Amino acid sequence: DQLKQSVEDYNSSTQVLLQVAKIYRRVSISLIEELVTTSLQAVFERPYQFLLTPQEKRGQIELKMHVKLGNLDLDPAEEMGGGVVDVVSLALRIVLWSRAKNRTDSVMVLDEPMRGVAEAHISNVAAMLKKLSEKLNIQFIITTHRDALAGAADRTFRVTKNNFSRVQQESENA
Question: Is the pLDDT of residue 168 over 80?
Fold first, then answer.
């Protein structure tokens, strides 16, 4: 009798844990979709919607990424330009890194982000990074040659190199 009760308790507990995991997965997916969608819309000023669709493969849940624009349902890696891929990739990296339990600081270093984004959209990229910084409480240190991106920073420094590197503060917009 006691063994039978233990097995029933175990099965009940397993069902509860599976339901909690399912809810947590749904909440996490919603957060990721919201932040990547917001990033795409901020940069390109179009009603993009980023979606993650769970699919079971080989007994595991995998997430299929796609971007909707009106009636179009597109695979960003296969059917969209490099600018969209850059925004999706960076937004995903930022969101997933910000949710990591073992990260050491709230500082993320970005080296020439958004290489594939057209110059016309770079000021929107800067605004997007500011919003993500505030929403996720992350400080970005960015190296860039793009003036529009540097101009949106709280502080900018110029690094010049002859025989040695020289760092000079150029502006403080805080």
Answer: yes
Alpha-carbon distance 113 to 98, whole Å?
17
- As beta bridge partners, residue 129 has none
pLDDT digits (tens, 9 = 90+) for 109-134: 999 888 888 888 998 999 999 988 88
Residue 101 DSSP symbol: T
In terms of phi and psi (left: phi > 0; alpha: psi -120 to 50; beta: otherwise), the region of 152 is: alpha
Which residues, other chains included, contact 124 with Cβ-Cβ below 8 Å and sequence gap of 6+? 42, 43, 44, 45
pLDDT band at 30 (very low <50, low <70, confident <90, very high): very high
d(CA 144, CA 90): 15
> How do beta strands 155-161 and 60-69 pair?
unpaired
Euclidean distance between CA atoms 143 and 151, whole angstroms: 12
